[in-house]
């Protein structure tokens, strides 16, 4: 079977930062592979190692700059990658769920996988909606927030656990083809080996513009307009203990004794 | 149209808190648009649920009796049919695990934009301004939308609706296509029993991402031993396999209410806070004075945990 994994390079933000308009100023930003996608890649690669998947394809929407990050998926074992970018996406502040759905759906229809794995959410914009939206759009089944997948995939069914709130898991069977959104903790993502990193440079990364995948620019016009970004006001009324580590530890020790919870 | 259709959440026979909160959010929005608030409750003991949901501000409750538990295909079909029938401007759903399992599908099917995990909503009669967080809560953003939309709301951001309402309760005869149901829920399982019940502890020493390496956990274990405390953690520690699931505090883990909760190297993501905000006294040890954990801490030490924790151990080991 063929597995497609959607991956994204996300922006990471330093503890101290400044905002420039509706963006965080560049100098405070880093880039990393989206944490949730890392688990999705690992799950796909494990399915390949278990002899269930024949091919793992990583798909991303992003500019050329993100290639180094996306190659992490190849270094960890994905066979090839598809990167979609277009001048039309250059000036978009926030690519909304519908726009991402149109683009990813077009790639998935072209690739025709049996299973799509997607991170539950992206660490930057945190919509947590694209996987399910794509599934509905292309007529696949789906499951959101999956933290366990049985690897036998017997009779075209994925047996999954969905992580609900309050320490409860839902046991669900989902017909394939399907999109599963993968929760952190489902597996232990591997570090890319040096050999893997070397090999990743040789693996194919197809770059496609919107026209190449048959997506009209007008269909990806985002309806959600980002109008402001600001740091949330601190609501802290905590007592901040100041001083050396010895002094602050002593304050805490005193509190614990006062409360009678430590001797 | 200007009406609002909000969808309730329930599990294993119980309405979830967000079902009452979404009434408050929906009523506020309906007041701003000048419309009615419709509530949908789907599957399970819908008549019983409808009675409980009939609180102040609800104009109509539509019950869809089909199956016992949440199934996203049933919810998607029922809500899209209700949308066709009622033509509301906004469909509101909880930003719960189940909400995220059907709200994006409804939006796609109805060709509407979807905005998730909102913490504030404001409508001036034409434009919806949705407030949400990005970068793990480091910033808040406002997002404008014209026209109809599907919106999911974060739990515990709006107060629960109270009082008794006089909503019209009507059974909605949704035409559920069984052939279109592609997933089957086979049951539920509680996770994280095990050796220790962290929800029983009086003193929790809780550790997060700031611990950096698995080996460093020994330092926190030593602290717990020295204090006679119970060890717990935030999600990343459990995801890394460094502690078992029964130690996880948070939305998807355990809710704890100790006398004192010491959060060490925990930034305080909303999902974590949901599990520990009921602690009597909260102490945070973190290098970042702006970390969200500081907003709910009673006492804070802005310092390196690797400097403070050994001092604390020494104090109690003496």
TrEMBL record, chain A:
Listed GO MF terms: electron transfer activity
CDD domains the record matches: ETF_beta
Keywords: Electron transport, Transport
Region (Disordered): 232-263
Coiled-coil regions listed in the entry: none
Residue ranges annotated for the Electron transfer flavoprotein alpha/beta-subunit N-terminal domain, each copy included: 21-217
Family matches, as SUPFAM superfamilies: Adenine nucleotide alpha hydrolases-like
Biased composition (Basic and acidic residues): 254-263
Similarity remark: Belongs to the ETF beta-subunit/FixA family.
Protein name per Swiss-Prot or TrEMBL: Electron transfer flavoprotein subunit beta/FixA family protein
Organism: Natrinema longum
Source organism phylogeny: Archaea, Methanobacteriati, Methanobacteriota, Stenosarchaea group, Halobacteria
UniProtKB/TrEMBL annotation, chain B:
Record bears the keyword Metal-binding: no
UniProt KW DNA-binding keyword: no
Domain called Electron transfer flavoprotein alpha/beta-subunit N-terminal: residue spans: 4-185
Key words, A-Z: FAD, Flavoprotein
GO molecular function: electron transfer activity; flavin adenine dinucleotide binding
Family of the protein in this entry: Belongs to the ETF alpha-subunit/FixB family.
Designated name of the protein: Electron transfer flavoprotein subunit alpha/FixB family protein
Organism listed in the record: Natrinema longum
């Amino acid at each position: 079977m063929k597995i497609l994994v959607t991956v994204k390079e996300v922006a990471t933000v330093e503890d101290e930062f400044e905002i420039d308009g509706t963006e965080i100023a560049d100098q405070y930003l880093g880039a990393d592979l989206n944490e949730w996608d890392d688990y999705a890649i690992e799950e796909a690669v494990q399915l390949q190692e278990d002899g269930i998947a024949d091919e793992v394809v990583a798909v991303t929407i992003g500019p050329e700059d993100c290639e180094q990050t996306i190659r992490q998926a190849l270094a960890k074992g994905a066979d090839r990658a598809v990167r979609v970018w277009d001048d039309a996406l250059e000036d978009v502040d926030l690519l909304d769920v519908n726009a991402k759905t149109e683009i990813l759906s077009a790639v998935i229809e072209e690739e025709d996988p049996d299973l799509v794995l997607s991170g539950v959410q992206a660490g930057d914009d945190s919509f947590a909606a694209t996987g399910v939206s794509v599934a509905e759009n292309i007529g696949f089944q789906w499951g959101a927030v999956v933290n366990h997948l049985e690897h036998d995939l017997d009779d075209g069914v994925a047996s999954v656990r969905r992580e609900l709130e309050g320490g409860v898991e839902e046991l669900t069977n989902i017909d394939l083809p399907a999109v599963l959104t993968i929760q952190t903790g489902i597996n232990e993502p591997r570090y890319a080996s040096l050999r893997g990193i070397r090999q990743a440079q040789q693996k194919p990364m197809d770059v496609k513009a919107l026209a190449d995948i048959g997506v009209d620019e007008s269909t990806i016009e985002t309806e959600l307009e980002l109008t402001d970004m600001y740091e949330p006001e601190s609501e802290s009324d905590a007592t901040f203990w100041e001083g050396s580590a010895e002094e602050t530890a002593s304050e805490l020790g005193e509190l614990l004794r006062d409360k009678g919870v430590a001797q | 149209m200007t009406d609002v259709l909000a969808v309730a959440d329930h599990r294993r026979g119980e309405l979830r808190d967000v079902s009452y909160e979404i009434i408050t959010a929906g009523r506020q929005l309906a007041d701003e648009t000048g419309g009615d608030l419709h509530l949908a409750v789907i599957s399970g003991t819908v008549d019983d649920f409808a009675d409980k949901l009939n609180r102040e501000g609800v104009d109509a409750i539509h019950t869809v009796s089909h199956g016992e538990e949440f199934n996203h295909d049933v919810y998607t079909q029922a809500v899209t049919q209700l949308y066709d029938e009622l033509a509301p401007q906004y469909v509101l759903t909880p930003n719960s695990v189940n909400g995220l399992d059907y709200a994006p599908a409804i939006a796609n099917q109805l060709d509407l934009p979807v905005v998730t995990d909102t913490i504030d909503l404001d409508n001036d009669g034409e434009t919806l301004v949705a407030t949400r967080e990005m970068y793990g809560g480091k910033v808040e953003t406002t997002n404008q939308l014209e026209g109809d939309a599907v919106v999911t709301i974060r739990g515990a951001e709006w107060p629960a609706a109270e009082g008794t309402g006089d909503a019209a309760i009507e059974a909605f005869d949704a035409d559920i296509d069984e052939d279109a149901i592609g997933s089957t829920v086979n049951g539920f399982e509680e996770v994280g029993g095990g050796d220790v019940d962290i929800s029983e502890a009086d003193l929790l020493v809780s550790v997060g991402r700031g611990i950096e390496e698995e080996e460093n956990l020994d330092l926190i274990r030593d602290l717990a031993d020295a204090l006679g405390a119970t060890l717990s953690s935030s999600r990343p520690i459990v995801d890394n396999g460094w502690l078992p699931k029964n130690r996880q505090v948070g939305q998807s883990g355990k809710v704890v209410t100790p006398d004192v909760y010491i959060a060490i190297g925990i930034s305080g993501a909303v999902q974590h806070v949901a599990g520990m905000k009921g602690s009597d006294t909260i102490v945070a040890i973190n290098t970042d004075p702006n970390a969200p954990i500081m907003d709910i801490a009673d006492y804070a030490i802005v310092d390196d945990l690797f400097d403070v924790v050994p001092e604390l151990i020494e104090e109690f080991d003496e």
